[in-house]
Amino acid sequence: MELDHDVREFIHFIKVEKGLSANTVDSYTRDLTQYMRALKEKQLVSLKEVNPMMIQEYLYSLKKSGKSAATRARVLTTLRSLHQFLYRENWTTTDPTALIESPKQEKKLPDYLTIEEVDRLFHLPDLSTALGLRNKAMLEILYASGMRVTELVTLEEDQLHLTMGFIRVIGKGNKERIVPLGKQAVTAMSAYLESGRQQLLKKNKHTYLFVNHYGKPLTRQGFWKILKQLAREAQISKSFSPHTLRHSFATHLLENGADLRSVQEMLGHADISTTQIYTHVTKTRMKDVYSKYHPRA
Known about the structure:
By secondary structure, the chain is mainly α. The protein is 58% helix and 4% strand. It contains 13 helices and three strands. It has helices at 2-17, 22-41, 52-64, 69-88, 115-122, 130-145, 149-153, 183-201, 220-233, 244-255, 260-267, 272-275, 277-293, and strands at residues 160-161, 166-170, 176-180.
C-alpha cells in the first residue's frame, strides 16, 4: 500500500541518512503507526490526499482522547517531518502541515537537585565493590558533563580522555561535542577503570565503559533502576528522573555565573531557546532567596 511505502521510506531516511538515535526512530515509528491507522479508517490510499483539515482533525482526536499538549506537539513534529520529507522528494505537491500551529504548552520548569542533595546521593555508592565504583563513576560523569543518559550508557573507551580532563560526547544526530570533566569525575572514573570494570566484564570483550553485573553493556532502563534506588536511599522526595542530574548540572553552572552559550554547547542543544529554560529556574531561585533573606522583602 502506498501509505505504508511512504512511511517506510521516511523511517529509512531518518535512520540511515539523518542518523537519528534508535529511541527517536522508535518514537517516530509509534506516532506514524497511529497516524496511518487513522488515515486508513478514512479510506485514504495515498498521503497525497491528506489536507490541513485532516491534520487538524487528527490532532483534535488526540486531544479528545486525553493526550497532553506536549504529546500533541510531539506528534505534530513527527507529522511535519514526514510531510516535509515527501514534499522535498517531490512525492507530494503540498505540505499539509505547513500552516498548522503547534499546541500551546505550559513551560514546566525542570526539577533539579540542591548541592546538598547531590552530595547525599554521591556519598551512597559502596566504593569497596565493583558495582559501587561503577555507580559512583556514572553519577560523577553525568553531573560533571550534563550528558543525556543514552549518551552515558553508549560511551566507549576512546571517547574518554582522563589525562586531559575531557570527554567526547556523541549526541543526537551523531553530533559530537567536547565537554570538560572536573577532578572528582576524573578520580571516580579512574578508580572504576582500575578496579571495577574488569571485575564486571568477566570474560566479555567490548568497548562500552559501563557494564552490568553480567558484564554486558548497561541499558538506559538498567541505569534508571539504579538511580531510582539511590534516590530512595538518599531520601530525595522531589520528582526524580534520569534527566535530573542533567538539569542540576545546567542550573548549578548558571547559578555560579556560567554564560548561556557555554552551557548550551556543553548540553548539546541545537537551539539556545532550549537552554533558556534554565534561566527561568535560576530567576525563580533568586526570588526565593531574596524573599527569604531580605529584611524588607
